[in-house]
Specification:
It is a single chain. By secondary structure, the protein is of the alpha+beta class. The protein is built from 5 helices and 14 strands. The N terminus is likely disordered.
Length: about 270
């Protein structure tokens, strides 16, 4: 496929590795960005995906294979980015498990690992690279700040309340998360004078916040439990933590943490 025209849809088989929290969408009511690894062990981004409005049989999990027709998007030149024909999305049987130190997942993830975030950013400047995976040398902190706009704007609410001819709305209006969560870290051979401080958009993080908010007696306790999970557990000393990152079409030099790959550390990586 070339970026000069919009061809017909072509089939794509994808191992889903990350799913971002949804946002109001002009083309749909709300949509998510999905990323994963192809059979050729290349990164691909699918957008927009109306995940919450998919039929139950189309609702995939991370590390499941999906098959869906895709085409090049209009107005998004990022390599490896496709618009899916979500009505024809098919979830394939099976899910890669976590047995034997995440052996099945390592088989697909290892070939797409970059040396560092700085390397991924350099590649973006050279060839437009827009998705990557790397191992941070040291994760320094997980922090947050209150979103300057903790609720949807009126125009965003209008988008979220629309009817869609092709989708059956299920559940309540999308909740806006009133916090921006970030990782502070150093990458290997980091060329920044200051540590990287990157926003996290992983759907699982936002769902954990929503669940803890209901279970905890206070907001402070909720946020502490979220930090314990995303820093103390996912980035703990027993984990071989890697970050999935992707950039934004309007700001290609700016990357976000799309998700975390956190298998247990292995004494002998030859066993993988």
């Amino acid at each position: 496929m070339t970026q000069g025209h919009r061809p017909d849809y072509s089939p794509l088989k994808l191992l889903v590795t990350v799913k971002a929290y949804p946002n109001p969408s002009r083309s749909l009511v709300e949509s998510s960005c999905i990323a994963g690894i192809t059979e050729e062990k290349k990164f691909v981004r699918l957008y927009p995906v109306p995940f919450r409005d998919l039929e139950d049989g189309q609702r995939f999990e991370k590390y499941q294979w999906i098959q869906v027709p895709v085409r090049l998007p209009k107005g998004d030149p990022r390599p490896g980015t496709f618009r899916p024909q979500f009505e024809k999305l098919e979830v394939l049987p099976g899910k890669l498990g976590t047995g034997s130190g995440w052996r099945e997942r390592w088989e697909w993830v290892r070939p797409v690992i970059s040396g560092s975030l700085c390397d991924i950013q350099d590649a973006q400047g050279r060839d437009g690279t827009s998705i990557g995976l790397f191992k941070p040398e040291r994760v320094l902190d997980f922090d947050w700040e209150t979103d300057p706009s903790p609720t949807w704007t009126e125009s965003e609410r209008v988008l979220l309340k629309r009817k869609d001819l092709f989708l059956n709305r299920k559940g309540e209006i999308l909740e806006k998360i009133p916090f921006t969560f970030r990782y502070r870290f150093r990458c290997s051979g980091c060329r920044n004078s200051d540590p990287h401080h990157m926003k996290i958009v992983d759907w699982e993080l936002m769902q954990l916040y929503r669940r803890m908010r209901l279970e905890c007696e206070s907001l402070e306790s909720c946020l502490r439990k979220v930090r314990d999970k995303w820093l103390g557990d996912l980035c703990g000393p027993s984990k071989d933590t890697h970050f999935f990152v992707g950039n934004m079409v309007a700001h290609p030099g700016s990357f976000l943490v799309l998700g975390v790959f956190w298998p247990p550390k292995q004494r002998d990586k030859q066993l993988l």
